[in-house]
């Protein structure tokens, strides 16, 4: 797990109480340059945020060919992810559904591969040069 926040102490306590220190590693922060190796070694990317206006990590995970599970409270999810096509969208604050979807992806290799492939194809549409073309076209339309 990478990240920190208000629930970090609860997570650390859960890991301690359930003797999961050898199974779960928590890293509070990584520099941007260190993230690619973590994406490369992941099977799935889970972002169960209660709210985030965009969360660029969604774009990054999709570009790293990872199937994404995230909540419907993340702006990037609403804009980029089509449920069960290029990722999985879950309701916020529902740990049962989150656990179910994580387990489903861990068990279903074919679904993981399909979501990862489609996520990568979606990410390609949002490369900087493609976004620049969209902005230029929008500006040209406004000028006209």
Q: Which properties best describe this structure?
A:
2 domains; 144 residues; mainly alpha; three-stranded parallel sheet; Rossmann fold
Please explain how this structure is put together.
The protein is mainly alpha-helical and about 140 residues long. It has two domains: about 30 residues, no CATH class; about 110 residues, Rossmann fold, CATH 3.40.50. The protein is about 55% helix and about 5% strand. The chain has seven helices and three strands. The protein has a three-stranded parallel sheet, sandwiched between helices. Helix 3 links the parallel strand 1 and strand 2. The protein is globular. The mean pLDDT is about 95.
Mean pLDDT: 93
* Overall tally of domains: 2
Percent of residues in helices: 40-55%
Question: How many beta-strand segments?
Answer: 3
Please describe the biggest sheet, giving its number of strands, its sense, and whether it closes into a barrel: 3 strands, parallel
Shape: globular
How many distinct helices?
Answer: 7
Uncertain runs with pLDDT below 50, 5 residues or more?
none
- Could you name the CATH class of the largest domain? Alpha Beta
Distance between the termini: 49 Å
Radius of gyration over C-alpha positions, nearest whole angstrom = 17 Å
Strand order of the largest sheet: 1-2-3
Elements, N to C (H/E): HHEHEHEHHH
CATH superfamily of the largest domain: Glycogen Phosphorylase B
Q: Strand-residue fraction?
A: 5-15%
What's the architecture of the largest domain in CATH terms?
Answer: 3-Layer(aba) Sandwich
CATH topology name of the largest domain, in short, is Rossmann fold
Structural class, by secondary structure, is mainly alpha
């Amino acid at each position: 797990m990478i990240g920190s926040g208000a629930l970090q102490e609860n997570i650390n306590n859960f890991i301690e109480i359930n003797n999961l220190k050898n199974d779960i590693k928590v890293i509070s922060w990584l520099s941007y340059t260190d993230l690619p190796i973590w994406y490369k070694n992941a099977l799935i990317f889970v972002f169960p945020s209660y709210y985030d206006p965009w969360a660029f990590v969604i774009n990054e995970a999709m570009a790293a060919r990872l199937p994404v599970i995230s909540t419907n409270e993340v702006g990037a999810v609403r804009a980029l992810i089509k449920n069960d096509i290029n990722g999985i969208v879950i309701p916020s604050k529902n740990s049962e559904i989150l656990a179910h979807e994580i387990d489903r992806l861990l068990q279903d290799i074919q679904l993981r591969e399909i979501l990862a492939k489609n996520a990568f194809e979606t990410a390609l549409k949002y490369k900087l040069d493609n976004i620049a073309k969209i902005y230029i076209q929008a500006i040209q339309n406004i000028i006209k």
